[in-house]
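To the wet lab folks,

You asked to see what we're planning to order before we commit. Fair enough. Below is the target structure as tokens, and below that is the sequence we designed to fit it. If anything looks off to you, flag it before the synthesis order goes out.
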């Protein structure tokens, strides 16, 4: 059963920044991707807090930079490599944590997350 996970924009600058809906299957893939490629943008605590609802906060600068980083990852093929590794149960260079549910990686959903990041004014898990 899929469980909805809503990310809410702190200061949305348009309708795309109000809410991003993920599921208990799609959010772990995005969270792991951000944790893999945005280590300079988020700290370990933020990465770990992304597991628990009502605990993660990403500020506007971080959100915009995460969106920009993901666009670069998609354009260079790094996101595809990550998606393939995730589908095979591994992250590049790291084992997939056993605590993660079945991870679903969808580049179209990831593109919606990028738009949300760029328009959210920062976000938290609602």
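Sequence we intend to order:
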């Amino acid at each position: 059963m899929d469980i909805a996970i809503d990310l809410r924009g702190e200061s949305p600058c348009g309708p795309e920044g109000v809410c991003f809906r993920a599921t208990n299957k799609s959010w772990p893939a995005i969270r792991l991707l951000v944790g893999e490629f945005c280590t300079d943008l988020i700290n370990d605590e933020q990465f770990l807090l992304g597991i628990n609802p009502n605990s993660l906060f990403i500020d506007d600068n971080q959100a915009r930079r995460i969106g920009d980083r993901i666009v670069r990852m998609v354009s260079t093929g790094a996101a595809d490599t990550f998606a393939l590794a995730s589908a095979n149960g591994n992250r590049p260079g790291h084992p997939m944590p056993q605590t993660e549910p079945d991870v679903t990686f969808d580049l179209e959903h990831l593109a919606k997350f990028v738009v949300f990041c760029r328009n959210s004014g920062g976000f938290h898990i609602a």
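Structural context that might help your review: The chain is about 45% helix and 15% strand. The longest strand covers residues 4-9.

Thanks,
Computational group
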